[in-house]
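Entry 14. Structure prediction run on the chain below.
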Amino acid sequence: MRWLVGWSSIAANFGTVGQVGSVGAVGTAGVVGPAGGPDEEARTVHPVGSQLLWGDPDPLWAVGDWRPDEVRTITVDTFTRLAVLGCCGASDEQLRVGLFAARGGALRHLTAWSGSYTVVVQVGRRITVVGDLAGARPVFYTPWANGTAYATAALPLADLIEAQLDIGHLAALLACPDVPEALRDGTPYAGVRRIPPGHALVLREGSREITGYEQVASLAVAAPQLDPERAVDLVRDALVEAVRARLTAPRHAPETMAPDPGPVPGMGPAERRAARGAPVPGIGADLSGGSASATLALLAAGLPGMPGTVLGHGTGAGERLLAVTFNDLASDPHGREAELERAGAIAANPRLHHVVVAGGEEALPYADLDSGPLTDEPGPSLVTAERHRRRLAAGSADHFTGHGARQVLDAHPARLADLLMDRRRRDLLRPVAALAKVEGPSAHSLFLPLTVYRAARRLARTPYRTGIEEAATRLMERRFDEPGAWGAGNGAGALDASLAALAWSRPGPAARWLTGEALAEVSVRLQGSAARPSSIQRPGEARARGALTRAASDHRVFEQAAEVRSQRLHAPFLDNQVVRAARTLPEALRVQPGARAAILRTVLSGAGVQDLPAGWGATSHASSAAADRVGLRAAVDDLIALFDAPLLADAGIVEARVVRKALRAAAEGERVPLDGLADLVSTELWLRRLVSRRGTCWTGTAAPRQRAVAGGVPPRRSL
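Output returned:
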C-alpha cells in the first residue's frame, strides 16, 4: 500500500526534519527540534519506511513502494512548492504553472491534468491537499498535536491518534453503502475524517477548511448541456489522453520474487512467472469481452508510446500489449462463451498478445479467505481477491482495467426524474420501451411505461428532505422486500431494479440482516442529514455521484486486496479529466439503451478502430452472480464457522444466527441477495485482520504505543 502523510501545526519555530534527499531515497530521520514545547510529539514521530519530501514546520512524507517517476516535486522557494504523487501526464512547466495558479487560489487547475494523482501545495504556512472527483484517491484528516494531520490512507492516521472503531460508520456502510447522507465524512476509525470527492483540504497553521473546486448541479435549474457530438468528442479526447499518460510514463521491469525454477512440465515461462507472483514487464490490460476493458486494450495497443521497458522487455513480434482474459471453468463454463468469443475476436489484433487464465474451484469467490493483506477499509472485493490476484499475476507491470466505466458513462435510473424536471418527457420513451422489452411479454407489460413514468414523476416532485426522511423511516420499519431490493444480478428484474433506484435513497442489500439497534442508528444519521442545510443536487445527479463514489471506493479496496508486487493497476475511467468530460454528456443521451457501448464505439472510431465483434456492449451480470453462488456453496462450511462468533455480532451490528441462516439458505439455492452476504463476509474478514495485526505505521521516541483499535472491538452502546 502506498500513501502520503503530513501535518500542519500552530508552532512556527520548529527545527528541521532530517535531511531532504533526492526523490526516491528512503529517509529514516525523525523530526528534530527543541524539546519541551507543545508540539514535542509532532517533532519526534515519523512514518515507517518513508521518504521525506519536505521538512518542518509542515512536513510531508511519501510512504510505500513508490516508483521514482511517481513522486515529483516543484520548488520555487523554501515555502512555495508542489508535490504530485501518482501517474500525472503534466510536464514540469505545467506543474509550475499550476503551482502559481494555486498560489492565487485556483485549485481546479491542479485537477485538469491527465492521469490519476494526488497534489499537495505549500504556499507559506498554507497547505492544500487536493482530492479527486471520483473518490479513488481520497484524502483523510484528523486533529493531532495542536494541528491537523492528513494522509491518503485512513489507517495511518488511526494509528497516529490510537483510534477506536466507529461502529456507527460500519453499520451505515452495510445499511446504505451508496448514500452519502448516511456515511457523511466518516471512516471506520473514530476521529478520522474524509474530505468529499471534488473538494480540497486547506490547512493554515493547524486550522482547516474544506473547499470545493467543482461546480455542483442545481436542483431548480439544469446546467447548460453541450451538443451530444461535442460531448462525446470530449470523452474521447479525455480517455485517449488518460491512456497516453500511462504509455508515455517510464516502464519498469518488475522485481522477481523468487528465482525461476527452470522448465516445469506443462508450464511455459509466462505460467512460471505468474506462479512466482511477478507480472510481465510492459503494458497490459484486462480483456473480458466487455466494452470498457476492450476500449482500453485497443487504445493502448494503437496509441504511440513506450510499450516495453528501456531495456526492451515486454515487446516482441510487433506486439505492444498483453491482453488477459479470465476463463471461469468452475462456476459457469458455458455461460460466458459469447463473452470469451468477443474477447478472442478483439485479441486477433496483431498488436495484442492474448493470454487466457483458466480458473477452477481455487479461483471461486470466497476461496482462500485466510490469506490476504489488511486493506485501509472494508470492501466487497475482499471475498474475490484471490480470484482477481490469479488473473492480475499473469498481467503486466502496468495493467489497465475498465473499473468505473458503468458509473461514469451510464445513466442512473434516477436521471429519468431529472428529465421530467426539465419537461423533456419525450426522451423517456426509448428507455421505458427498452425496459418493457427486457421484461418480455406479460399481462402487465402494457402498464410498464406508465409505472416507470409515475415513479420518475414521484421522485421529481419529492423534496430532498422528504426523500431522506422516507429512507430513514424505511430502515426503522425494516421495509426491505420492495421492488429491486435484491440488486442487479441477484434475481431482480430490470424493471424492479429501476423502480427501486427511482428514490432519493435506498437501503443496501445487507440491511435486512442488521440488528434493529444498528438500523436505528443509521436512521438517526439520515434524519440528521435531512435536517442540516446542504447544497441540494438534482435527484438523478445526486444518485449518480453517490454510485460513482461507492464504485471508486470499492476500486481502491480492490487495488489493495488483490495487489501483486511491482504491478500498478490503472483505471482511466476514474481519472479527473474523464469524469469531468463524462459529466458534459446530456442526460437525454445517457438514458438511451446501449449508450455506453455507443459512446465507446465512437471513441474507438475516432482512434481508427472500426471493426468490432458482434455483441459489443453486452453486460455480464448473470455470469458474475453465478460465480458468487457457486463460490458461496463451496465455502459455506467455512463461512458458517466464520460467523460462529463474529466480531460484527460483538459490535451489535448483526446477530450471528441470522447470518448463518442466510448463508445456508443461499447455499441451498434460495432467493437471497448475494451482494449483501458478500458485504457482511468482507466486513467480518476486515475486522478480524485489523484486530489481529501487529505493529504500527509510526516510529520515533513519541510514536503511538498502541496500534489502531487496540483492545479489539468495543461493545455496542445502547441508544
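The longest helix spans residues 539-561.
Filed with the rest of this week's runs.
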